Amino acid sequence: MLQVDAIIGQAGLLLQQRLSFKQHRYINPVQLRQHDARLTDCLRLLADIALPQDTPAWLAWLLAKAPTAALTPEQLPAVTDKTYAWLMLHEIKYFERPERLLATLKPLYLQLPNDMNDSEQTKPAGLGCWLALRLAPTEVANDAATAAALMQTSIGLIALGLSRKRQLLPQISELASTLSLTEPRHGAVCAAAWLLGQPKDEVTLLKQLLQSGCLVSDALFCDVLLMLLMCAAPDKAQDQMVNMLANLNTAGQPTQGTVLAIQAIGFSGQLKFVPLLLELSQQPELNALAVNALALLLGALDADALLERAQMADFAGGKAGRSLAGCTVTPTHLAMVLQRGNPQQRQLAACYQFWQNPDSPLYFADVFTGGRTDAGTASA
Fold first, then answer.
1. Closest CA to 96 of 57, 50, 44
2. How many domains does the chain have?
3. Does residue 88 share a domain with residue 6?
4. Which of 96, 126, 148 is the last residue of a domain?
5. Spatial distance between the Cα atoms of 97 and 59, rounded to a whole number of angstroms
6. Which domain of life is it from (predicted)?
7. Of 261, 275, 310, 294, which is closest to residue 25 (Cα–Cα)?
8. pLDDT (0 to 100) of residue 108
9. In the prediction, which pLDDT does 318 show?
């Protein structure tokens, strides 16, 4: 029994570590694959053992062989980001058999029209469509009923846009014409149409997302949508967008506007922001955000070296064009980042590739076994 308890404890530790890798500046795809393999091996060991009655609910669900319903909030482990834990546990369970995942999620999709008055990204229906987008994007909405249900919420609309369901653009455009500017879905429906190829000024779109309350820092789609906006926008528009975010009148410390503005700077690829990020990194409450942004622009090791220098303000970029992980953004460099970068760098590279490949859905770099490089390069 002691050995079983030790393996259960090891599984919990490996899961906790896996959840932390999304923002890890130093982990590369090979290390991510190795960790995923260790977690998978640990679960296989437990699958052949009689589990004690006090086995954590999330682990018992993960190891259940019979088809099961989606995880409930009560079954989740005691972690800070329960939303991400829900996604990751379902990815672990269904990664090799996404068709079973879709069968589990189908009932959740049809709850979406009745789920509009709550925080949609924390409910099973909203989480379900985002999970399907991450694991099986071509299967997100292959029938009219599911597509209609997804259009009832912001998260569903963004998922349709990121899955590149171009045949739905006429319906989404029609929906956009019926929504008021203050309707929560207004920003999302405009973003969905933009993602599906409808031309839109990025500054105007960001303003619409903010006005409708759609782009908030804890939304599942916030990071990737902000990345896609910054990748697509010209330099001048990027500057306007950073200023717009920085001037948001929001509560908290740091404020949500400050968080989004620093993230946008990291996504911008503009080295002129490096001195500002160095200055912001000296503020304890902004240090992690600023250092992550520097790692996106310069690469993690070069960012660390710059932070350690005595004359930090003497940085001079000297590179033309957008920068990602220390090099100018080119198709060749994007492929290299997908092969070797950390999860955030790889996600930003995938967002650049999203615009270069108009028929491919967005690739998620932090998905379970996201250390695979075939998924990223396949969309190249």
1. 44
2. 2
3. yes
4. 96
5. 18
6. Bacteria
7. 294
8. 67
9. 57
Q: Decide if 209 is inside a domain.
A: yes
Question: With b meaning 16 or more CB within 10 Å and e meaning fewer, what string describes 74-102?
Answer: ebbbebeeebbbbbbbbbbbbeeebeebb
Whole domain around residue 224: which residue ranges? Answer: 134-232
Structure tokens at 205: 């779109």
Same domain, 74 and 142: no
Block means of pLDDT (10 residues each) for the chain, 380 residues, are 87 96 92 95 91 94 82 89 91 81 69 48 69 82 79 88 92 92 89 96 96 78 95 98 90 82 97 95 94 96 84 58 94 95 97 94 89 41
| C-alpha atoms less than 13 angstroms from C-alpha of 144 in its C-beta half-sphere | 1
Give me the pLDDT at residue 347, please.
96
**In the prediction, which pLDDT does 71 show?**
85
90 and 1: one domain? Answer: yes
Cα torsion 193, 270, 344, 188 to 10°: value is -20
Which of left, alpha, beta for 207 (phi over 0: left; psi -120 to 50: alpha)?
alpha
Say if residues 29 and 373 touch (Cβ distance below 8 Å): yes
| 71 and 6 in a common domain | yes
**Distance of CA 373 to CAs 29, 135, 222, 335, Å?**
7, 15, 24, 9
Tell me, letter by letter, the H, E, C secondary structure of 39-98: HHHHHHHHHCCCCCCCCCHHHHHHHCCCCCCCCCHHHCCCCCCHHHHHHHHHHHHHCCCH
The tokens for 284 are 């304890």
- State the helix-helix crossing angle for 256-268 and 235-246, rounded to 10 degrees: 160
> Residue 222: inside a domain, yes or no?
yes
Asked if 341 contacts 335 with a C-beta cutoff of 8 angstroms, the reply is no
Please check whether residues 145 and 214 belong to one and the same domain: yes
Residues 6 or more apart whose Cβ sits within 8 Å of residue 231: 267, 269, 348, 351, 352, 354, 355
pLDDT at 371: 52
Residue 59 is assigned to a structural domain of this protein: yes
* pLDDT computed for residue 378 by the predictor: 34
| Residue 202: per-residue pLDDT | 98
78 falls within a domain? yes
The verdict on 34 and 90 lying in the same domain is yes
Distances (CA, A) of 54 to 45, 50, 69, 70, 352: 18, 12, 21, 20, 46
